[in-house]
Amino acid sequence: MTPFPRRVPCGTSDGMSDSPKNVDTPAIRFADRVNRIAPSPTVAISSLALDLRAAGRDVIGLATGEPDFPTPPHVCDAAMRAIRDGHTRYTQVDGIPELKAAIIRKFERENGITFTPENISVGTGGKQVLFNALMATVQEGDEVVIPAPYWVSFAGIVEVAGGTPVYVTSGFADGLKMTADSLAAAITPRTRWVIINSPSNPTGMGYSAAELRALADVIRPHEQVMVISDDLYEHLTYDGFAFHTLAALAPDMAGRILTLNGVSKSYCMTGWRIGFAAAPAPLVRAMAKLQSQSTSCPNSIAQHAAIAALDGPTDFIADNNAAFARRRGRVLAALNAMEGISCPAPDGAFYVFADISGLIGKKRPDGKVIETDSDFAAALLEQGDVAVVPGVAFGLSPAFRISFATADDALDTALDRIASVVASLV
Ligand code: PLP
């Protein structure tokens, strides 16, 4: 089994994994909604790296999008206090009032936008909040505009909901960012949502205030279109990049914007599974209805920890970012020194997205030709014991994504190994 997708992402049988298929047992018949999606390729590749390591291979995984730093001690203390104080039961469906209040304070303090508790939805990670929003609003025939390269779950969740992802693809020459003109060309009467993710997973590119205003100007006249602003990487920025969120720049569109955020990335809390959104109250109520029939509520202890994260000291974020910035510099210098690879500097997040058009057509020492970015990722894994995600998984080829949220030593070794694999291609 290869984990590397060969065709368009998020399709059905892409050969990358064991998607359930209808099988001989008459009792097991899978619903169309599960047959039409593939498991997340980034998760599949990270799992493969773990399996190979468990089997004794010295594989370095650069596929996972999570900080390698520990959750700050004051957050862990708050969780332990919550357990001792008996906060171990079901809570309100979409978040305890104290956490909603902390989220409202966060939006006011950091983004200058005002919400009431009726606007706030808390879920089991930003991914569940996004899932609830799309499942509550998207159905057969509806289109969702997704700038490509994109985070794999945007497309996957739209497809689960029965909608159609409409990709607006920006290449390396366009700076990997959607322009107002390309967005305008993608909107149709069937468009329900436009997704904006800044800084972006997988490219790290961020939109300036002027670029966001230009996108808002395109969306504004289409009254049936709502916007998801995915701000998960808000605090992870470099070189003085100024983060902006759409709801602050286009207050007249407040009734049409869902601002998505969470504690996973900025607060090193991926496993705690707390994400949140601010959105119009009727949408928040519909999302809560879905959540009441799925997970009942987010984890009670993690909600208390999230309050400590949002209200507590944030100096550790600057320390983490300084480490990320150093690694980003090392990765950019190393990759850009390799013949056939070119890699723009990301504004934020902890990813670099590299163009490998210069490697296509080259041959491995075993004679296999690198025809696609999946072939290149396979070469890195087989020859170099390094796991990366090929661009095809994110909707732009030939490219690959490296997460530099990896310990310095491992990252340096991985870069040396990538250099050796690239040097071995003729
Ligand atoms: N949005 C983006 C762009 C992401 O990269 C991720 C996680 O990788 C999420 C949302 C969801 O994160 P979580 O569910 O951990 O809050």
Describe what is shown at a glance:
Helices cover 38% and strands 13% of the residues. The chain has 426 residues and is of the alpha/beta class. The protein has two domains: 32-69 and 316-424, Aspartate Aminotransferase, domain 1 (Alpha-Beta Complex); 89-311, Type I PLP-dependent aspartate aminotransferase-like (Major domain) (Aspartate Aminotransferase, domain 2).
Q: What's the alpha carbon Rg, rounded to whole Å? A: 21 Å
What is the number of beta strands? Answer: 12
Helix content: 25-40%
Which stretches are poorly predicted, pLDDT < 50 over at least 5 residues?
Answer: 6-19
Order of helices and strands: HHEHHEHEHEHEHEHEEHHHEHEEEH
The level 1 CATH classification of the largest domain is: Alpha Beta
Tell me the layout of helices and strands.
Elements: H1 32-35, H2 41-54, E1 60-61, H3 73-84, H4 97-111, E2 120-123, H5 125-137, E3 143-148, H6 152-160, E4 164-169, H7 180-186, E5 191-197, H8 209-219, E6 226-230, H9 246-249, E7 257-262, E8 275-278, H10 281-292, H11 300-311, H12 315-336, E9 351-355, H13 373-384, E10 386-387, E11 389-390, E12 399-403, H14 408-424
Parallel strand pairs: 1-10, 3-4, 3-5, 5-6, 6-7
Antiparallel strand pairs: 2-8, 7-8, 9-12, 11-12
Helix pairs in contact: 3-11, 4-11, 5-6, 5-10, 7-8, 12-14, 13-14
Bound molecules: pyridoxal-5'-phosphate.
Pyridoxal-5'-phosphate binds next to helix 5.
